[in-house]
Q: What sequence folds into this?
């Protein structure tokens, strides 16, 4: 029974382990353990006997959170084990002050502030080191050591942060720092960083990172007293790069290390580590470790960069194909008219050969009035020309026909020029949006949006032509109110399409003004007369500051306790034209002190709604939105969206 029950017990334990490891909290636990291990290893990094505060740099790069505390705790453990409490007291004290500073000010600073944590690490390293300088009476060697530690703290924080963000070279530098830190562990005089550095150098063979890895690992080992590594490993990587296939490269690398040891006198430890690395190099998935430049995120980023470059190039190509400023069709009007009427006239040679100069002068003087009016009249021609022309009415009819054709061609050219301008701007907006970095979704913000939308269709229709939408992108919160032209299903589809396009553009990185100009250009290219008005509010959840963009929409309101501020004026909707005169309105405002922003469609505006808005004394967006809709007239779709910000309660 016991033998049969054992597999079931093992399977139950395995399932339990899988359940525990798959729990969302375990991911954070593993990250903290990894940060602690990295901090402990980095504590061993030193240059000429000077301890480098790399655990502090890693904690600063991680920012405020459990991982940062874990990295600092691991560094303290590493200093205590590798160097003793007395030697590690200075970086441990600086790290403690930096962590305390992050705890106090970290939640009050934006994550976009990339210099606070490195600056704090550098500042507290200098302050703590200054106390030790007083004890050593500012000896030059002590000052030099303090400068080195301060540079390592601040520079390491910046470098490690870039490594955590996915940059390839900083990641390789982080690996080299781990090699340097592990070299402080030397059981029996054999530094453990030596085989790790050789193993990384051997594993990188055949990849674009081969020489950088060898150079960084060799430099890290050289600074830890492993003489010759900074020369032997890079030279071996260069020689091995000429080999074809794994065995050839590994063999050349091992022979090159042997030759380098003999020539430089690096010692047997490096050769032993190289032989051990050559034997173990096939046991690890190096293609994943050194495929840093080809990770899915980086491949996607490169594709986005290529797409942005393509859109930018297309926009430049369209911008170069400008039509000529001069209109060559003016002179051809009379030529075509003469071909139609005068060619068969008995006086053709007299008018267009013998007296050509006089004829051209008469027509040139008549041309400005004809072009301005768009029509030729008998009074435009000189009496001398009328007296000898046998087909005046036919000639004028032919000229008017050509003028109509010219007007159509000019209108088509203007439309083509407008479409080309719109398409060029669309390409530029897409290129700019794809080039911008994605916002950090984990930012919580100091404010929580409270939005209430109330709507009612016209005359009780089942569908409303007004569409509202709200979404978040990083620290930004967006509210959209689009009013489609007309009512019913078609208006609802138009407003929904406009809101969807704007949402996708904003999530892709476009700025609000760019997104609305993109929608305007889209309407111009469609040329079907359908459009939607737009209210777009962008709110910064960190500061409470907001910007309201309006295009063709009804006026909005900002309610501040007992006062009401009206925002926006009547303007044409998007899709009417292009150029500087066709731009959305923009208003800057703040919702940080309990203000309520009220967006209404055309049907929900009016004197009754504004009167209710001014009389309302509450603070509930729900009550305010419901009251505005209920007191509005029923002649159109009615929608009101009321937004307020509430301060987030810190837990």
A:
């Amino acid at each position: 029974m016991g033998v049969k029950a054992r597999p079931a017990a093992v399977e139950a334990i395995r399932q339990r382990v899988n359940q525990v490891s798959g729990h969302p909290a375990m991911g954070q636990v593993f990250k903290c353990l990894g940060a602690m291990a990295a901090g402990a290893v980095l504590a061993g990094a030193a240059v000429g006997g000077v301890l480098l505060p790399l655990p502090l740099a890693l904690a600063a790069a991680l920012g405020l959170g459990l991982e940062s505390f874990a990295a600092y705790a691991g560094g303290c453990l590493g200093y205590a084990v590798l160097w003793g409490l007395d030697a590690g007291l200075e970086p441990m004290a600086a790290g403690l002050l930096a962590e305390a500073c992050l705890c106090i000010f970290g939640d009050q600073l934006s994550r976009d502030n990339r210099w606070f944590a490195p600056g704090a690490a550098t500042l507290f390293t200098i302050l703590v080191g200054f106390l030790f300088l007083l004890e050593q009476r500012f000896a030059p060697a002590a000052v030099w050591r303090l400068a080195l530690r301060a540079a390592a703290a601040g520079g390491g924080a910046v470098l490690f942060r870039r490594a955590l963000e996915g940059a390839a070279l900083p990641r390789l530098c982080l690996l080299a720092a781990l090699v340097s830190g592990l070299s402080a562990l030397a059981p029996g005089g054999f530094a453990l960083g030596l085989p790790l550095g050789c193993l990384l150098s051997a594993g990188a063979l055949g990849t674009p990172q081969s020489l950088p890895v060898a150079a960084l690992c060799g430099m890290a080992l050289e600074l830890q007293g492993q003489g010759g590594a900074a020369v032997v490993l890079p030279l071996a990587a260069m020689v091995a790069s000429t080999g074809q296939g794994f065995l050839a490269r590994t063999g050349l690398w091992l022979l090159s290390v042997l030759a380098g040891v003999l020539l430089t006198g690096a010692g047997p430890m490096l050769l032993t580590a190289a032989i051990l690395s050559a034997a173990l190099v096939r046991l690890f998935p190096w293609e994943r470790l050194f495929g840093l430049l080809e990770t899915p995120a980086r491949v996607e980023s490169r594709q986005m960069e290529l797409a942005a470059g393509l859109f930018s190039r297309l926009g430049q190509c369209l911008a170069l194909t400008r039509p000529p400023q001069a209109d060559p069709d003016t002179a051809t009007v009379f030529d075509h008219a003469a071909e139609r009427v005068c060619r068969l006239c008995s006086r053709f040679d007299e008018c267009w050969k013998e007296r050509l100069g006089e004829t051209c002068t008469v027509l040139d003087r008549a041309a400005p009035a004809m072009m301005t009016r768009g029509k030729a009249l008998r009074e435009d021609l000189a009496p001398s020309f009328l007296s000898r022309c046998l087909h005046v009415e036919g000639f004028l009819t032919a000229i008017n026909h050509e003028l109509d054709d010219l007007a159509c061609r000019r209108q088509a050219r203007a439309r083509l020029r407008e479409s080309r301008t719109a398409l060029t701007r669309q390409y530029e907006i897409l290129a700019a949006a794809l080039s911008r970095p994605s916002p950090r979704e984990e930012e919580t913000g100091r404010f929580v949006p409270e939005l209430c939308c109330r709507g009612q269709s016209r005359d009780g229709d089942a569908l409303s032509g007004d569409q509202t939408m709200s979404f978040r992108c990083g620290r930004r919160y967006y509210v959209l109110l689009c009013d489609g032209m007309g009512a019913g299903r078609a208006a609802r589809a138009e407003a929904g399409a406009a809101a969807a396009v704007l949402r996708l553009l904003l999530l892709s990185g476009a700025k609000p003004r760019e997104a609305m100009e993109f929608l305007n250009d889209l309407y111009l290219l469609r040329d079907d007369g359908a459009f939607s008005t737009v209210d777009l509010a962008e709110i910064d959840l960190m500061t409470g500051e907001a910007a309201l963009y309006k295009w063709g929409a009804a006026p909005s309101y900002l309610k501040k306790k007992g006062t009401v501020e009206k925002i926006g004026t009547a303007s044409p909707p998007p899709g009417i034209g292009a150029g500087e005169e066709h731009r959305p309105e923009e208003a800057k405002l703040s919702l940080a002190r309990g203000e309520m922003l009220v967006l209404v469609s055309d049907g929900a505006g009016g004197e009754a709604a504004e009167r209710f808005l001014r009389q309302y004394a509450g603070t509930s967006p729900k009550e305010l939105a419901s009251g505005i809709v209920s007191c509005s007239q029923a002649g159109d779709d009615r929608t009101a969206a009321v937004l307020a910000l509430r301060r987030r309660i810190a837990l």
